[in-house]
Amino acid sequence: MKILEQYILRRVVLMFLTALLPVLAIIWTTQVLRRINLVTDSGQSVGSFMVLATMILPTIVATVLPFALVIGITHTLTTMNNDSELAVIDAAGAPRSIIQRPLIIFAAGLSFFSFVMMGFVEPAMRVNVRTMIATAYADLLSSVIEERTFRQIEPGLFVQISERQSGRAMKGLLVADSRDPASELIYYAREGAVDETGKALVMQDGEVQRKAPNGDVTVIRFDRYAFDLSDLSEERGQARYGAKDRDLLYLMDPDPLDERYVDKPNDFSAELHRRISSSFLPLVFALISLMLCGDARSHREARLHPMASALIMALTLFWASNYLTTLAETSSAFLPLLYLLPLGSGSAALFMLATNRSPRLPKFLSSLIEAVATVTQKRMGVGTGGSA
């Protein structure tokens, strides 16, 4: 690689990291804060929470990376244009490929990195996160760690305790169970404990109130009563994996007995093709950025800032890709569009680069913008000429 190519690549990589790391930190922080209840609700240690936070990080890298590349390329090349460096390169007779080649190679490497992250690393981390959360909430006692606070265990089932004691013992239990529409049950007990298996809540010295649909209330006192938690514990302790939690090899050949695959087979095919097509985005975004700011231009040329233009195009492609993925989950007929969108956009940008053409707005749109600008200047009292 030539010295000039190394110089351009070094500046782009530096700006790429400068844009990637802060944005990644912000998004990662928002995702981690959504899981803070793992500590407050389940009593997990701070160390477990940090492990969870670390596993969340790879799940967002592939999403942020292409946009950081757009910022790195457009900012670097725009700065070089403003400093007349691109004009000097053109005046020296250097071909455009001396600017394009290192950045395209870098973008291709990032595309391969995104493919590996989305295909294998990200789903593995998702599985670990789901397993960790399911294990943390498997025990009912950990879910009601806060005293004198109603805690919803599942829809229709609430638990409150007055005091936690050593071991698994508790005092002042209140359990409200309205999961069965045929009756509402409210349990009061002076003492109680979850057995060692976690499948029963044993309450002592209490009463249960049963309210029938017609409004009749029946009160029964008991010395000892076992509230069944077996179904609840098994359900909360078992992580359920969807299409996004599976790696690329599994998506290519799903288990025909997988309940999620049986219910929604299109989700697995849509997720498979989304990951493959999305891995092209860094390369496509790089071509778009080079198309917009890869040549020397006059400072007097009125145009939208290249970074803004490139980000608008990148966001449009990203949102369109997600929308097509949603459509592909309902019908497999939309799957080819997942590839047509990025490959078509990249081919158009590559054609513009190969023919040394610059993107221009349609004539009618340029005339409209010019007319609006003229009217705005007149309303603000800015004329095209002046009198002495």
Dominant shape? elongated
Largest sheet geometry = 6 strands, antiparallel
Number of strands: 6
Tally of separate domains: 2
SS-based class: alpha+beta
The span between the termini is 58 Å
Overall pLDDT confidence? 83
Strand content: 5-15%
What's the tally of helices? 15
How much helix, percentage-wise, in residues? 55-70%
> Low-confidence runs (pLDDT<50, min 5 residues)?
383-388
Strand order of the largest sheet: 1-2-3-4-5-6
What is the rounded Rg?
30 Å
What are the secondary-structure elements, in order, as H or E? HHHHHHHEEEEEEHHHHHHHH
Please give the structural blueprint.
Elements: H1 3-33, H2 37-42, H3 46-56, H4 58-82, H5 85-91, H6 97-136, H7 140-143, E1 151-154, E2 157-164, E3 169-177, E4 184-194, E5 200-211, E6 217-228, H8 230-236, H9 248-252, H10 259-263, H11 265-278, H12 281-293, H13 306-328, H14 335-354, H15 363-379
Antiparallel strand pairs: 1-2, 2-3, 3-4, 4-5, 5-6
Helix pairs in contact: 1-4, 1-6, 4-6, 4-12, 4-13, 6-11, 6-12, 11-13, 11-14, 12-13, 12-14, 13-14
Overall description:
It is found in: Cell membrane. It comes from Rhizobium rhizophilum. With 388 residues, the protein is an alpha+beta fold. Helices cover 59% and strands 14% of the residues. α1 crosses α4, α4 packs antiparallel against α13 (306-328) and α11 packs antiparallel against α13 (306-328).
Keywords:
388 residues; alpha+beta; 2 domains; six-stranded antiparallel β-sheet; 59% helix; elongated; disordered C terminus; cell membrane; LptF
